[in-house]
Specification:
With about 425 residues, the chain is mostly helical. The protein folds into four domains: about 1-150, no CATH class; about 150-245, no CATH class; about 250-295, no CATH class; about 310-430, no CATH class. The protein contains 22 helices and no strands. The longest helix has about 35 residues, at about 400-435. The radius of gyration is 24 Å and the shape is globular. The two termini are about 35 Å apart.
Length: about 425
């Protein structure tokens, strides 16, 4: 019994099982698929194209698979990582595809460990272990780590570490620790620019905690900001020089805004108008160049938003629903004609979100201040996607936090029921004895 309990509470066991499940899914997926045409085993769209350009010594460029010059379509960490694997295993080869997917499933499996530590720090060891097991078994975490050659799984890992570091650094008045904290947030932003949206709130929480402990919070925050700026500076300087001051982190916001706000959008976004899907849009991109193309799309999107406020709100409603339920339509509209597999997915998605909300409310009630970084991630990370467009993988970087809160709610409910049962039995024993 003790050995079984120790195994269930072991973060190593959780990580090993998480990796085994993902590796099994990878094997089954590849074993059952036909050989892709033109030996393009890696599916990475813009990221894959940039990585191929890097691997052939053409620089950080050409996101659409043809020579189009320097790009800032995405932040650099994952394309460079993929380019390194292309250098070792060959560009768009089977070996490269397996290598990057094994790396992605490693990122996803390792996420169980900081998630366990975070749960143990905020709640207790049982909640941390349950959160780890939830993540290990979560279908979307398994699916994205195998099927999406993108920063999706790495983003989930680094953001989880960022949150864990926020609570750890709050108890440390060292300027060096705060500078390293800021630098790691900077690195994480270079993995996924959307992570930037939750850095200010996390830093404000640290300043608040430092001042409560009697430390000089603003001074320490300055070191964190410097570390953050230093980590970002090479990429920002490169973009400023290459694009003549017109790009900081990424160039493609105008396109993403337009894809979700134009006359052809049905409910959420018009994916078929993306330059990787539309020959017309690709030709326009190549004709005017990346910066001018993105500027054009941003202008068109803003004009549409101003002229069609009701449609814009409708699109945002569907994006909100898709972010938190995986589907843009209401529950009953989907349920009525859904097959069992779709119904199972629907129930799982709604259950996780409802448990997350319950966990957040319980955490806010138990320790209002300590729960603020969790609330910060839930509230601010998805906000840009309500405005532009979304898919379930865009939410994935905060899925570990959602899983943690869901685990906390589930454990709290089980404990409450167990206490009620124990209390009821305790009340009944004296009566039975008296009756006898």
């Amino acid at each position: 019994m003790e050995k079984s309990r120790a195994l269930l509470l072991s973060p190593l066991a959780i990580v090993v099982l998480a990796f085994a499940l993902r590796a099994t899914f990878l094997f089954v997926s590849f074993h059952g698929q036909p050989v892709p045409s033109a030996s393009r085993y890696v599916v990475g769209a813009e990221v894959g194209s940039i990585a191929a350009s890097l691997a052939t010594d053409h620089g950080f460029s050409s996101p659409l698979g043809v020579d189009s010059g320097p790009t800032a379509w995405t932040t650099p960490v994952f394309p460079f990582l993929l380019a390194g694997l292309f250098k070792i295993f060959g560009i768009y080869t089977l070996r490269a595809s397996i290598a990057i997917r094994l790396l992605d499933i490693s990122f996803s499996a390792i996420t169980c460990y900081p998630l366990f530590l975070l749960g143990r720090h905020l709640f207790d060891q049982v909640v941390g272990a349950v959160a780890g097991w939830f993540w290990a078994l979560l279908p979307k975490a398994i699916f994205f780590s195998v099927m999406w050659v993108w920063d999706t799984s790495l983003s989930a890992l680094v953001l989880c570490v960022c949150l864990l570091a926020t609570y750890s650094v709050a108890e440390c008045p060292s300027a060096r620790s705060w500078a390293g904290y800021g630098a790691f947030w900077g690195f994480s932003t270079l993995v996924n620019a959307a992570i930037l949206s939750v850095f200010p709130g996390s830093l404000l929480f640290l300043v608040y905690r430092a001042r409560r402990r009697g430390s000089r919070g603003l001074r320490l925050a300055t070191f964190a900001a410097l570390g953050f700026a230093l980590a970002l500076s090479p990429w920002i300087i490169r973009n400023q020089l290459v694009f003549h001051g017109k790009v900081l982190l990424r160039s493609n916001f105008g396109l993403e805004l337009w894809l979700g706000n134009n006359p052809e959008v049905p409910t959420s976004w018009s994916w078929w108008l993306h330059p990787t899907e539309s020959a017309k849009e690709k030709a326009e991109f190549l004709r005017v160049g990346e910066i001018s193309y993105m500027k054009e799309k941003k202008t068109e999107a803003i004009e549409f938003i101003k002229a069609h406020p009701a449609d814009t709100l409708r699109f945002q409603y569907h994006r909100f629903m898709e972010t938190w339920t995986g589907f843009g339509e209401p529950f009953l509209d989907i349920w009525s004609g859904a097959k069992p597999a779709l119904r199972s997915e629907l129930l799982l998605n709604y259950s996780v979100t409802l448990l997350m909300l319950a966990g957040l409310l319980l955490a806010r009630r138990k320790f209002p201040a300590e729960s603020l970084p969790l609330l910060n991630l839930i509230a601010f990370f998805p906000a840009v996607y309500y405005l532009t467009h979304t898919t379930p993988r865009y939410r994935h970087p905060i899925d570990p936090v959602i899983t943690l809160l869901a685990a906390y709610a589930a454990v709290s409910m089980v404990r409450y029921v167990a206490e009620r049962i124990a209390s009821t039995r305790g009340d009944q024993r004296p009566e039975s004895a008296h009756s006898a």
